[in-house]
Amino acid sequence: MGLRLKFNLVLLVVFVLGLAVSGYVSYDLLHRNAREEVLRSAGVMMEAALSMRQYTVSQVRDKLAPKEDEFLPQGVPAFAATEIMSQLRKKYPDYSYKEAALNPTNPRNRAVDWEADIVNDFRNNSARPDISGIRMTPTGMSLYLARPFQIKDAACLACHTTPDIAPAAMVKLYGPNNGFGWKLNEVIGAQVVSVPMSLPIANANRAFYTFMASLTAVFVVLFIILNIMLSLMIVRPITTMADAADKISVGEMNIPELPESGKDEVALLGRSFNRMRRSLEKAISLIDQA
What is the pLDDT of residue 49? Predict the structure, then answer.
């Protein structure tokens, strides 16, 4: 096995190991960043919904003057936030916001199976501030962020304890079996935001492929340059020395001396070879004269 082949094999092994480690680290980092980016978007969307709820409570609810036989859901924070987020979905259909409850007043807020699991998780772990995860949807992967919805204001129980004390108009609109039996400090649902991951993941994959292609291109260029340097600075001079040594070993002394320019190890070897050759010539000359 020649020196060039050994060198190239070692270089190839180093590249494959480096490419594997770099690929693993960069892929994990890019996809983690993509998830964090989506999670930040979900957090912004969640805060926007909370701001809408607060605005409804402080600016809208007291301004509405409901009739005795009419219930105005626009004054309910959950209804207002859901309606405004529904407007957002007209332009961004993959984004969603839902105040999922196990026993909601409005049937559209009833939690589906995976949302019910989140609500029950919050009920079993009341200290948990939020839950996030990834689930598959018909349009691809989607990240969800959920926060518990807990009854902290006793005023809310006026509408959700029993149908008897709830506003008659509300009971007439939603029925006597929806949204009652709530208790103070009870987790009755979860605010769930879902944000698509397809675009951030696609961007992460594109960045990963670009990085790996660039790294491979750099290796190929480096491989070519190192092979040229190896050939010019090591392989060719050593081959020339080997050829000269073969000729000298069979008595052929009329060959030119090796170049001695330079201060590297190969030049030093060339100078040593030339001195050895001159010493050998003198020795042979003395033997012939004897």
Answer: 87
Sign of the CA dihedral with 181 first, then 145, 48, and 74 last = negative
167, exposed or middle or buried, with CB in 10 Å at 0-12, 13-18, 19+? middle
**What DSSP string runs through 173-218?**
HH-TTSS----TT-EEEEEEEEEE-HHHHHHHHHHHHHHHHHHHHH
Q: Nearest-CA neighbor of 174 among 112, 87, 101? A: 101
Place of tokens 């994959």: 205
Give, in order, the Cα–Cα distances in Å from 43 to each of 2, 48, 219. 61, 9, 41
Domains detected in the chain:
3-7+205-289 (1.10.8.500), 12-197 (3.30.450)
Taking Cα atoms as reference points, which of 66, 89, 80, 82 lies closest to residue 173?
66
The burial class, CB within 10 Å (0-12 / 13-18 / 19+), for 136 is exposed
State the pairing for strand pair 187-196/140-150. Answer: antiparallel
Residue 106 main-chain phi, psi, to 5 deg: -90, 120
Residues 6+ positions from 69 with CB-CB distance below 8 Å: 168, 169, 172
138-168 pLDDT per residue, tens: 878 889 999 998 888 777 777 788 888 877 7
Spatial distance between the Cα atoms of 281 and 257, rounded to a whole number of angstroms: 12
DSSP 89-157: HHH-TT-EEEEEESS-SSGGGB--HHHHHHHHHHHH-TT---EEEEEEETTEEEEEEEEEEE---GGGH
The pTM assigned to this predicted structure is 0.68
CA distance 232 to 230: 6
